[in-house]
Amino acid sequence: MRDPRKDLAWPEIAPERYEVFDGPARDLAVSRREMWKMLGAGVLLVFTERLPGAPSGELLSTRLHLGANGAVTLMTGKMEIGQGARTELTQAVAEEMRINPAKVSVVMGDTGLVPDDGGTWASLTTPQTVPVVRRAAAAARGLLPQLKAGEQLPGVVPADVAVTDPKDWRVCGTSLPKVDGRAIVTGEHQYSCDLHTPGMLIGRVKRAPAHKAALESFDSSRAIELPGVEVVRDGNFLGVVAPDRATAEAALGRIKAKWSTEPLPPADKLGEHFKATAREPVFRKGAAYPALLEAGSIADGMAAADETLESTYSLRYIAHVPMEPRSALAEWKDGALTVRCGTQVPFGVRQELSEAFGIAGDKVRVISSDSGGGFGGKHKGECQLEAARLAKAAGKPVMLEWTREEEFTCAYARPAGLLEVRSGFTREGRITAWDFHNYNSGAAGIRPPYDLPNFYCGFHRADSPLRQGSYRSLAAVANTFAREMHAGEIAERLGMDPVELRLKNLKDRRLREALERAAERFGWKGSKGGGGRGSGVACTIEKKGRLALCVELEQDSGGVRVKRMVMAADFGAVINPDNLRNQLTGAMIQGLGGALFEELEYDEERITNPSLMAYRLPRFSDIPEIDVVLIDRRDVPAAGAGEAPITLPAPAIGAALHNATGEWRRSLPLARGGG
Amino acid sequence: MADIEIRVNGESHTVSVDPETPLLWVLRDHLRLTGTKYGCGEAQCGSCTVLLDGEAVRSCVTPVSDVKDGEVTTIEGLAADGGLHPLQQAFLDAAAFQCGYCTPGMIMAGAALLNENRQPSIEETKRALEGNVCRCGAQPRIVEAVMLAARGAGDA
């Protein structure tokens, strides 16, 4: 008999940790003992029951409300973080209900009002939530004739409700401008840092001088001399509340705290550290991102090869740097907690808060505003928890806004990694063996798009010196970098054109087309490298999208300048072409930063470049000419595109640098130190 | 603490603050003009850009006492009569944003550029906006928006 407790004890792990912690799936292959051992390794796990997809049987009234004058309100747990979800979901409702998009409003991320659609992660809004919303809206349309305004939609979403064929789309498939555009350009758009409530206090947190530290003792006597200041200690947490920002800042400066600190292993020995602490990859059935993929035999593949090649790649930690730093406004009332914030995962944050304070989930309400950027960085409830602690102690609403420095030092980083690749291939360019090992950074994107008879792709978990977590496309940046760089190295060894080498090993018809169209638009055939100018190419299948990128750059004593980027992308049916172009372009630019110069630097104690003065981001002068070829396939379900395009700039730029200089730089960032 | 009178968006306000308080926090905390954003606190991202007598300043590093004799314009006061400034309209037309957090600062920096140079080139625009960061990567569209607004100004 099925034990219902198993479902409670082993819910499908929230995807946000999958890249560093591909957790036990429902098949219970992992024993409870092993589970606790893994928890003991210092990985904080938060299990959230996922509801994404809720295919049918969902109450219509939880999803859609009908208002006066034909207005329709959609409710969703997905968030707007700049990627265009609010607009895309508006299009989905308008399309299926045959109404003007202006009649649609979308309530997002208020756990008191909306269904849990899972986190805004893994490019799932388009492939998972849009279909759910389309079905609900199509069902609602069928009921409209018999309903009055304000009347609750009856019943559930039927399993067999028909939705509009993409070939017949009238609202989807068009470039509806961002629905909140006017509020954005007038400054009226409210992010969580813009919120205010009467009687609200301002919080600040006393930070440790080191990345790993424990609070030993503190003296707050001079701080509490200031009017209205309270000091709050809870374990290693030490913070203040004050009536205003200046007083909070002054109080913080008056607290003397003693910390015991733990050193960090040297950044230049990171690879050795990962290898020394690595565990063997384990295959888990049903895992969203399996840590181990195998086919054929590496030994056979090597025996069949004319040549072999071995390379090691690495990448450092980087920061998400959303332009809007985290903030949270927390308020307790009668034992219930309300936190307003900007998060990608409202229900996950609700669960973190509920567990931290030992109160039931229905006593916590998280209301998330649209975020000023997330990029996988706003999954966890650190700032929300701190604000709630301060508010609880103060007995008043508290607003806590992280500083830019806190963003760099207190948020989690994109994992660093070490990647070892060994390949065997024939003189004709067929890859016969592919032995691929990722240490620490994760399993996402580890599956090669190529048609390989013999491969081993393994993700080795390791101990991370810095606190790490999710990032736009997860580990696919690392895995795609190593894989595509290596493909370029094979082509070089064979004296073969890198586009041709890829085509020789690619069966996927759609990726072949994307690669050929990117090369054609770029003018790949006529491109020649040398003398400080070079071209590079990379391609991938990521989150079901097919994409290829060609870049052209110059390198001289002034550093590397990317001149041109041409991407061809196939994400199936395109719901909003202009938004998709905006997304692709933006991800390429963000990827350019990670490829060339972004790096969280640290010494034995702490992160040493926690400011925008020191941490180099892409700026206007870094932006190349960018061209995007969209391949719209109405017969293929729409794939999410927020992440995939960030994976290609690093390998394409790396290959172009080799083309320009003859040198393979195998470590990200490629232009470390300005070179 | 001192009583300081400043003019913002055509109105006078008296605030009681330390004269060294950054203008940003006076705008946000005291006047509740939250369109001006905090991004870094060290004049490195431009999210807090406002106009002081028509020129761009970083409000996060500008002491409030420094603007006593000038006229401050924030994103809320850029357009007259609830309409849109041509550059705001151009940002909409070019869809020159994703998350929108840097947008007010970009628009103010762009407006300052257009005040000084009605027909900037692409290179001049990029240089003028170099200190403003858009993490979403909307830079090509932002340049396009400034070009659109400049073209409109040229036609007028």
State the CATH class of the largest domain in chain A: Alpha Beta
Mean pLDDT of chain B: 96
Global outline of chain B: globular
What is the helix content of chain A?
A: 25-40%
CATH-assigned fold name of the largest domain in chain A: Aldehyde Oxidoreductase, domain 4
Task: Summarize the main sheet of chain A.
Answer: 7 strands, mixed
Helix segment tally of chain B: 5
CATH architecture identity of the largest domain in chain A: 2-Layer Sandwich
User: What is the C-alpha radius of gyration of chain B, as a whole number of Å?
Assistant: 15 Å
Any low-confidence stretches of chain B, pLDDT <50, length ≥5? none
- Spatial shape of chain A: globular
What would your notes on this structure say?
The complex is a heterodimer of chains A (675) and B (156). With 675 residues, chain A is an alpha/beta fold. Chain A is built from 17 helices and 22 strands. Chain A has a seven-stranded mixed sheet, sandwiched between helices. A six-stranded mixed sheet of chain A has the order 9-17-16-15-10-22. Chain A has a four-stranded mixed sheet with strand order 18-19-20-21. The longest helix of chain A has 20 residues. The radius of gyration of chain A is 26 Å and the shape is globular. In chain A, 56% of the residues are buried. In chain B, a hairpin with a 2-residue loop joins strand 1 and strand 2. In chain B, helix 2 packs across helix 5. Chain B is globular. The mean pLDDT of chain B is 96. The interface between A and B is large, with 57 and 54 residues.
Brief sketch in words of this structure:
Helices cover 28% and strands 22% of the residues of chain A. Chain A has helices spanning 4-9, 32-40, 60-63, 85-97, 125-143, 181-186, 245-254, 270-277, 298-303, 346-357, 382-394, 404-410, 476-494, 498-504, 509-522, 577-596, 649-661; strands at residues 64-66, 72-76, 104-108, 201-205, 212-219, 230-234, 237-242, 256-262, 292-295, 307-315, 327-333, 336-341, 364-368, 398-401, 417-425, 431-439, 455-460, 533-542, 545-556, 559-570, 625-631, 667-668. The longest helix of chain A is centred in the last third of the chain and has 20 residues, at 577-596.
